[in-house]
Amino acid sequence: MILQGDAGRSGNSGNFGAGLFRRYNPRFAPDPLLVPSANLVEVDNVTFGYDPKRLILRGISLSIPRGRIVAIMGGSGCGKTTTLRLIGGELRPSKGEVRVDGQSVRGLSTAELYALRRKMGMLFQFGALFTDMTAYENVAFQFKEQTRLPEVLIRHLVLMKLNAVGLRGAADLMPSELSGGMARRVALARSIALDPMLMLYDEPFTGLDPISLGVTAQLIRTLNDALGTTSIVVTHNVLDALALVDYVYFMSDGKVVAEGTPDQVRDSAEPFVRQFVKAEPDGPVPFHYPGQDYRSDLFAAAAA
Ligand SMILES: Nc1ncnc2c1ncn2[C@@H]1O[C@H](COP(=O)(O)OP(=O)(O)OP(=O)(O)O)[C@@H](O)[C@H]1O
Ligand SMILES: [Mg+2]
Asked: Model pTM?
């Protein structure tokens, strides 16, 4: 893995005692069991199917280094959203393991899982705002639900989050008064409200015009770097993603079929990657959802 080697620089791994003890002192050496992994998320050989007879993920492994933005790409229905739901602890793998911040998600109690999920922000494609609340109230909702902070502090925090996405001036607008791009940014402010250590984005660019898309992509990068977050972005939007992310995984048929840095992806001769980068409709990723033979479908319809 290309990123793993230098990931420690952005994370806090191996940094115990730095500056305090210039020479190695075994008394103060970090306990290897306590040193956090360079990867915030590790998906280790995970198999999963909603229906045990139809596997969606077949032994998938991903490493998401701390502080980085990693994209997951692949054809429609290949299991990207499912992977995010496994990382978010909403689903449990049938085999293999998902570790977030060193904790195996499978072994967590409901209370522990809830605590872990509070440290994650999710921006989903259809993650709509509450339509009967202003932009301000939508963001404040997070603080009111999840914290016991006094009203005056919540006001400061909400305005700070809206300011971070450039929409402090729109605080009093209702969702119906926002453009699609603005609504997405308010949803982004809401999902970063509690300063998550991990942000999961599912198709954050869908339906946005090129300018809003550029603004959103820039925001994802800025917020990731400013807040010291780690981000996973699921998107079809290859060219925009390549400009944004540090590393890309390509999925097909429930497996990782290619991976690399944006430069490696652009230069790749791998047919699957080429199909994505050149946006060709057919190639290793089939256009058709698997179904029974077309002829038998037609005859079945005629017989009905
Ligand atoms: N709740 C569910 N119950 C049963 N099957 C599901 C469920 N959610 C998704 N699936 C199936 O799992 C497969 C993977 O779905 P998933 O949503 O992970 O795909 P995706 O890669 O995110 O696709 P897209 O790019 O279109 O969003 C699909 O075949 C889908 O029909
Ligand atoms: Mg999806």
From this structure: 0.80
